[in-house]
Structures are given as C-alpha cells and as structure tokens.
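Try it yourself: sequence plus flavin-adenine dinucleotide, in.
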Amino acid sequence: MNISFTPEELLFRDQVRDFLNKRAPAAVKHKQTAGLRLDKHDMVAWQQSLFEEGWAGINWPVEHGGSGWNATQKYIFFDEASKANMPRIVPFGLNMVAPVIYKFGNEEQQKRFLPDILSSKVWWCQGYSEPNAGSDLASLSTKAELQGDHYFVNGTKTWTTLAQYADWIFCLVRTDNSGRKQQGISFLLINMNSPGISLQPIITIDGQHEVNEVHFDNVQVPANNLIGEEGKGWTYAKVLLTHERTGIARVAESKQRFCLLQARIKELQDTPDQPHVNSVFMARVMAVEIDLVSLEYTELRVLSSIATGNAPGPESSILKILGTELQQAIDELFLDLSGLHALPFVPDQYSLGYAGDNLEPHYAANTAPHYYNNRKVSIYGGSNEIQKNIIAKQILGF
Ligand SMILES: Cc1cc2nc3c(=O)[nH]c(=O)nc-3n(C[C@H](O)[C@H](O)[C@H](O)COP(=O)(O)OP(=O)(O)OC[C@H]3O[C@@H](n4cnc5c(N)ncnc54)[C@H](O)[C@@H]3O)c2cc1C
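Structure, out:
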C-alpha cells in the first residue's frame, strides 16, 4: 500500500491544519491540552465547528450532507485532529444512529432526524445493553407493544453512555417473543423527554458520571419512530456495531499519546537517578510502537473498504481488539513511568477551576484518569472475548 501523500492530499492536510489552528474552538483546545475534563458544551462546540466547515458527516454519503472524503482524507483528518489535541467525535448521533437512518430509515425519518444530527443540535445515546443482556445482546427483554399507532415501552437499559445529556435514545426493543431470539427485535427511536423515562447515574471507578441506567415505564412512542421493518432490528443493529467497533480503535489518538510518552521518556532519560527507564521498559515501548504501526495499516484497509461503499467487515473486530489493547498498554507504560506519582488520584484536579495543589507531575500526563477510564475499552462495543469469537466464526470458519 502506498501511503505517501499526493500534492492534492498535502494541500488537503494544510487545509485541515489551517482549520484546526484558526477555527476549532480555542477553549476546547485549551482544556484538552491542560488535561482537563470536557463537558457537553465543549463537545458540541467542537462538533459544530466541524459542521460549519461542512466536515461533520465524515463517513456520511454526500447526498445526506457527508464530507465526500476518501479514505486518505479521513486518515489525514483524524491524524491531524489528534495531533492538535482535539477530542474524539461523540459517536452516538453522527457515527451510529445516522448510518442506520440513512440506510434503513424512510424519507420522512431521514428529513426529520439527519439535519439535527449533522449539526449536533440533538444529542443521542445508545440503548442496546440491559442488566441481563450484554454480550448476549439478543436476550434483551425491553418490551415494545404496539397499541393503535403507538408502542408502549417497558424495561431497563444499562451502561447508557452520557444519557444524562441526551435528547433522544435509539433502542433495541423486543416486539415479538415467538421465534428465534434475534427475530423479534426492533429498532426504535425514543424521545428522552417522554413521560415514563427515568435515569439513574452509575459512577465509574474514575469517579465520573459517564454511564447510566435508563428505565422505561409504559413509555408511549409513536409507531412512525420505528426504523425499517418490525422484527428486523437485529440486522440494522449489526451494521451499526461494525461502525462502532471501527471507531473504538482510536489509532490516531493512541499515536498521539504514544508521542507524548516518548517525549516524557526523553525528559526522564535526561534526569539523573530515575529508576523507571531501563532496557526492559524500553523493550515494551518498542513492542507497542511496532503494534501501533501494524494497527494503522489495518485501519487504512478498513477505511478504504468503507470508502468503496462496503460496511466494515470482521476486520473491525481485529481493529477493536488490537486498538483497545494498545490503548491499555500505553496507559500501563505511563503508569510504570510515573511510578509513585500515579498514586494520588484526586479527580477534582482535572476540572476547570480546581484551586488545590497539582498532585501529578506533568510527565505523568493524566496517568490515573486514563488508566481507570480505559479499563472500559476492552469491554464496551462488544467485549474483546466476543470479538475473538466473531473472528473465529467469520474469518477462520469455526
Ligand atoms: C463504560 C461503558 C460504556 C458503555 N456504553 C454503552 C452504551 O452507551 N450503550 C449500550 O447499549 N451499552 C453500553 N455498554 C455496554 C457494553 O456494550 C457491555 O458492557 C458489553 O457488551 C459486555 O456486556 P456485559 O457488561 O453484560 O458483560 P457480560 O456479557 O456479562 O460478560 C462478562 C464477561 O464474560 C465474557 N463473555 C461473555 N460471553 C462470552 C462468550 N460467549 N465467550 C467468551 N467470553 C464471554 C465477556 O467478555 C466478559 O469478560 C457500555 C459498557 C461500559 C463498560
């Protein structure tokens, strides 16, 4: 594969750099660079700056307002955005529900939902997992019963990321119990302001409110919020999941964090009497670097496949496993590099306006929050063990 850039691609890279320098929100850049937490306003401001540039629908078809970028342009954009320390795009609207709506929704639904997703006016969350249906997602039991022209929804979704910000939730619901468990599942769009919806925060190990339980108590949903055909939700959900897994690999972000790690190592190497940077440690650093380069090539293969109109295939499972393992490996290198300095974990010091002592030396680079938060990456989007099952079935034929 030839990855040297053409003159046109270099011009595009300059355009991206210019945008990131001049028009990406400065407040978001500042928070990211200082290692502070972002809030809803920050994430929306970043995505709206992309929208204003015509760059919000990175993977969308042009007829629905997509950027029209080819695989290389997408690669360049994500690489440059990560280098400029900009945050990832919140995937639930732009990268998850939108492809389902533009592929399987009717024209009325496309007109109604897609513009507000593209402009990030409306925040979406994902209602797939349930207390008794995670890896075995098809066992889900949240029930939607059609009465007249409304569904009545009852049940509980869990681990729902950032549902506290959401205006809408896309849900897998059970509309039939009679056949195979995959057959009676439907894909329903539900307004989060509907009477009967309540949220319960789940506080994670890093002290954050990132996930929730969402309860549905006889929630009335117009029947025209059903995507596609009743009972075909499993097919639509699978398309969405492959897109989700590709995004979770976060190769560009890992490259950026790896560069930071190298810079910190260099600083410590120049410091007398530091115990951490030895040949065993450096061998681990090199192994991670090699894996990172291989992963980047796999991501390029998947991006080219998407660019030619294909949905990402089982390669997305490879990307998910390796991408998340690498994120965690880099966290662990930071942890070892920081030694005792990684221990004092005071979540407040990562909030804007924190007035206490800064307990973490700068070279620790948010070790504790990254380490704790990234425990999730090998679990969500379908755990890594489940991805190995998918690879065994689809690639090896077991
Ligand atoms: C931080 C976070 C955010 C999330 N956000 C969302 C969200 O926004 N929306 C949403 O719908 N879901 C979300 N999830 C849920 C996520 O997709 C599930 O946690 C995941 O699918 C695993 O399901 P589970 O937690 O029920 O674990 P289980 O399915 O109970 O699995 C427990 C363990 O058993 C292993 N296991 C299970 N079955 C097999 C098998 N057949 N073969 C081998 N090993 C197996 C798993 O790998 C895992 O290690 C999120 C999860 C986390 C942690």
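One thing you can check immediately is this: The first helix runs from residue 7 to 22.
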